[in-house]
Amino acid sequence: MGIAGLWSNWKVEDKPALFTCCLITTTANDVVRPFHDRMPAILAPADYAAWLEAGTAPKAAHALLRPYPAERMEAVEANPLVNSPKNEGPHLLDPAA
Length: 97
Hints:
Elements: E1 2-3, E2 5-10, E3 18-23, E4 25-27, E5 38-40, E6 42-43, H1 48-52, H2 58-63
Antiparallel strand pairs: 1-6, 2-3, 4-5
Protein name: Abasic site processing protein
GO molecular function, one term: peptidase activity
GO biological process, one term: proteolysis
């Protein structure tokens, strides 16, 4: 999946460059709304090029920042092991017991 975001390269005098980024959020869809009022702006694959193209008009880029279709998502309870950065591996994708 692609999530809309922005990045910048900050350069101040003789200091090393600082690269920063952020994810863009939008209004939550029906799947996410029970948990939070915002969600990442998930882009459809057909919209990737328009989002990444520097020549895309600002209004056209803004129109891509809409809630992802709820019918294309599902909510599952996360495995509690994801709560610790000590845990790694594909078993973290297993649903909660």
